[in-house]
Amino acid sequence: MKKRWCRMLVFLALTAFMLACLMRILCVKSENGASQARNLYNQPGNTIDVLFLGSSHVHCNVDTRVLWEQEGIAAYLLTTAEQPVWNSYHYLLEALKTQTPKLVVVDMFGPVRFMDDIQEAWLGDNLDGMRFSGNKWKAIQASAPSDHMEWMLGFPRYHDRYDDLVKEDFMNFWWNKKLLSTWKGFLELQNHAALTEPDISQVTESLPLTEKSQMYFEKIMEVCEQKGIQLLFLTAPYLVEETDQMRFNEISRQAAEHGLLFKDYNQPEVYREMGMDFSLDFADHAHLNAQGAVKYTTHLASWLKQNYEIPDRRGQKGYESWEDHGVAVRDHAD
């Protein structure tokens, strides 16, 4: 009887192991968020000093290589396409399981532009990369209108990807952890769009966030206060609209009430400081190209060091992945 039970346990363990390996291969790899979230677990524990949360306005605009090379900032972009603030909150909780950031930076484009809309096209990027846990279940309940268990398991959604597999799909294993850890979430864009610089400097009115966004906005502040983590709210350069700016004004007001900063990179004087040229530095209406990202991140790196206590980790033991970071996983899969 004991041998029978032992054989059964071994069989179940091997089956579970094979399914886990199959899921690692078949799961969708996307540098619009799913890969950023999944790669969090490859980062050396308690090494991320600056954790970025928010939308693609972060992972297409903030060049983590510049942050490191200019100021020695060990930053990671835990961002997803059109990330709503409730997913920012749950990703913060997920990161705090393995990391102790000195500063959390939250991009606020999602909650000012998309309100409480469910961005179904980006649900996979917002949910797939997070590991199975109670925190993921809560993020799914806050994000997905239906099929909660399907989103939790993941496998039912991508079990038929066999014909779409590429070399990159076979890299998502623990023996590649050191290599995978060198990527910090930045997605470099090479496109070019000639845009006209917006001017919303005269917009002084305010509009509130939705009730749901406001609740999670406050939850993020509460967690950071409880953990003693510095917190910054941010918006990157883009073709900002008047209603966007009105909500940014409200975010700035509330941040100030809590003794926090809101850094608005859509002000004419800040464009001048960065040397931002809307006819050259953008990939599209919402994202910077590689040249623009360097300008933006160079200014941001200096501003962060001036306003927050962030250590320079260059040359320190345990930060080797930042010394060789910035190489996207796809570069090793070619």
Outline of the structure:
This protein is of the alpha/beta class and 334 residues long. Helix content is 46%, strand content 7%.
Give a description of the structure.
By secondary structure, the chain is α/β, with parallel strands linked by helices. 46% of the residues lie in helices and 7% in strands. The chain has 17 helices and five strands. Residues 326-334 have low confidence and may be disordered.
Query: For the largest beta sheet, what order do the strands appear in spatially?
Result: 2-1-3-4-5
CATH architecture: 3-Layer(aba) Sandwich
Q: What integer is the average pLDDT?
A: 85
Q: Which structural class do you get from the secondary structure elements?
A: alpha/beta
Tally the beta strands. Answer: 5
> How far is it from the N-terminal to the C-terminal residue, by CA?
51 Å
Give me the number of helical elements: 17
Low-confidence stretches: 326-334
Q: Give the CA-based shape.
A: globular
H and E string? HHEHHEHEHHHHHHHEHEHHHH
CATH-defined fold name: Rossmann fold
Sheet of most strands = 5 strands, parallel
Radius of gyration: 21 Å
Number of domains: 1
CATH class: Alpha Beta
Percent range for β-strand residues: 5-15%
CATH superfamily: SGNH hydrolase
Query: In which range does the helix fraction lie?
Result: 40-55%
